[in-house]
Write a structure and sequence with these properties.
The protein is mainly β. It is built from 1 helix and 44 strands.
């Protein structure tokens, strides 16, 4: 019930497919969107951007805030500016470095630290703003505190209460409780000459600043190189300042930009937005559905919003999970036992059992979620390189090659043999593994001979309900165990991967063609034509991953485990 390739490695060799980033577009309602070809076959694109609640664009990178509080960053990573800390955040701000606000009010910063701009003071804050080489925070009581470089006096915040704060290049600005703006720091380009009046929002850039008046008008001041102060008429609810340009968000969701762009496409994408953020020479916006789209300069990858293609897919009987590029795990399908409630953090591998899911964090820790009736969530301590799950138990492969299993202990399914292994596959009541030497060893229930692996050198193994299959070094597939549905009758030819499930198996030929054999009461053997890069099996359905990122599934399902998360473009 896992996606496997012919490369020996992670958890019954889960597939790691490097796909090109796919274009992004608007979020649709929850639930899979499916193009049904016939009763048995469904086609869906995979790897679509996940929703964001906020975005911030900086000098050469950007960061977004996921609905669960996770911060994800993309673009240049020369100074670790993409290494957002794990845990939950309520806000994020990006300049040449990044800072995030935790739910308890703590400010955490990462990235460049030439001038101590990451050294956030202790205490509880309600907002944080990042400039070029300094940061400012608004404390719970309304006091503004700034840290980092003070070359222009941009850290010398005046006393008094503020309701908002903005950090620019060598200046900072804040909105007082009464709506008035006060700026401090370098004034070479008139950066401190804020207009009079009452304001509700403010943004400070390198050489100019803009703010939204109480009546919705935007006013800008400072350097006017290329027209960044020439604000369009009309009402706005938010504004964001770039190098020599600015962008505003109208009440109806339209984004309007003005001024001069350094490079890249200045055309604002179609659609309605809930937020906009201007960086040095690029802009990012959050669409109404939660999708982030960026435009402008792309030299450092700052337009390449993560959450696109999956690298690993794992299928179960009623739910599935995928590992996105960047380490995010997303699950979909049946959620009766919470098997879709993925914990926060970045992961390197994922596996799916009957009613639970497991993943390996980037630090090697294994974590499981979902049903815990049979101790399926009681992962052992220590580091793992891979994990495999099926039925009510899981097995993990440690970096040393040792195997540890947990969950239901019936039939000795947890009694993994000693020694070094290259891959492990968890089946229903048994498991199999490939030793470093290429020998296959199986343990657990042997009522149908599913443990009686043939001799020889193998490069991959699969454990099904009560049969097993392996791929020999020469590409031949051999199966053993129960043969009530002809699931041992592997076709001739050379294969790179094999999967096994209840009464049937599928293999991936060297040509990329998928061939299936055994039980076919639900059409699970009726693989479509064409080339695939991987194959996965559920209880009554199968899925294949095409080179262009499409998933094609065939067979029968009760829930919706066969389709990846909802596509985000029309």
């Amino acid at each position: 019930m896992r996606l496997r390739t012919g490369t020996v490695g992670a958890a019954a060799v889960l597939l790691v497919v490097a796909l090109l980033a796919l274009p992004a577009a608007a979020q649709r309602p929850d639930g899979p969107v499916l193009a049904v070809k016939d009763r048995w076959t469904a086609l869906a694109d995979i790897g679509f951007p996940a929703a964001f609640t906020a975005v911030s664009a900086g000098f050469d990178h950007s960061c977004g805030l996921r609905p669960g509080g996770e911060v994800v960053c993309w673009g240049d990573d020369e100074f670790g500016q993409l290494d957002a800390p794990e845990g939950s955040f309520t806000a994020v701000s990006v300049g040449s470095h990044s800072c995030g606000l935790r739910p308890d009010g703590e400010v955490v910063c990462w990235g460049r630290n030439y001038f101590g701009q990451l050294d956030a003071p202790e205490g509880s804050f309600t907002a944080v703003a990042v400039g070029s080489v300094h940061s400012c925070g608004l404390r719970v009581g309304g006091e503004v505190v700034c840290w980092g470089d003070n070359q222009g006096g941009q850290l010398d915040a005046p006393e008094g209460l503020f309701v908002a704060v903005a950090a620019g290049d060598f200046h900072s600005c804040g909105i007082r409780a009464g709506g008035a703006i006060l700026c401090w720091g370098d004034d070479e380009f008139g950066s401190l000459d804020a207009p009079a009046g009452s304001f509700t929002a403010i943004s400070a850039g390198l050489l100019h600043s803009c703010a939204v008046r109480s009546n919705g008008e935007v006013a800008c001041w400072g350097a006017d190189h290329g027209g960044p102060l020439d604000v369009p008429e009309g009402s706005f609810i938010a504004v964001s300042v770039g190098l020599d340009f600015s962008c505003g968000l109208r009440l109806g969701g339209e984004v309007v930009c003005w001024g001069v762009w350094v490079d890249g496409d200045r055309h604002v994408p179609d659609g309605l937005f809930t937020a906009v953020s201007a960086g040095f020479d690029h802009v990012c916006g959050v669409r109404v559905g939660g999708e982030v789209v960026c435009w402008g300069s792309r030299y450092d990858g700052q337009l390449e919003v993560p959450g696109g293609p999956f690298e690993i897919l794992a299928t179960g009987s009623q739910h599935s999970c995928g590992l996105r590029h960047g380490g995010e795990v997303v699950c979909w399908g049946d959620d009766e036992f919470g098997q879709l409630d993925v914990p926060t953090g970045r992961f390197a591998a994922v596996a799916v059992g009957e009613h639970h899911s497991c993943a390996v964090r980037i630090d090697g820790e294994a974590v499981c979620w979902g049903e815990s009736r049979y101790a399926q969530l009681d992962t052992p301590d220590g580091a793992f390189a891979a994990v495999s799950a099926d039925g009510f138990h899981s097995c993990g492969l440690r970096p040393s090659g040792e195997i540890a299993c947990w969950g239901a202990s019936w039939h000795g399914r947890l009694d993994a043999p000693e020694g070094a292994f290259a891959a492990v596959a968890a089946g229903d009541d048994h498991s199999c593994a490939v030793r470093a030497s290429g020998e296959i060893v199986c343990w657990g229930d042997n009522e149908d001979g599913q443990l009686d692996a043939p001799e020889g050198v193998f490069v991959a193994v699969a454990a099904g309900f009560n049969h097993s299959c392996g791929v020999r070094a020469d590409g031949d597939v051999v199966c053993w165990g129960d043969d009530g549905f002809g699931q041992l009758d592997a076709p001739a030819g050379s294969f790179t991967a094999v999967v096994a499930d209840f009464g049937y198996s599928c293999g991936l030929r060297v040509s990329g063609e998928v061939a299936c054999w055994g039980r076919n009461d639900a059409g699970q053997l009726d693989a479509p034509e064409g080339s695939f890069t991987a194959v996965a099996s559920g209880s009554n359905y199968s899925c294949g991953l095409r080179a262009d990122g499409d998933i094609v599934c065939w067979g029968y399902w009760q829930s919706d485990p066969r389709i990846a998360p909802t596509p985000l473009w029309e």
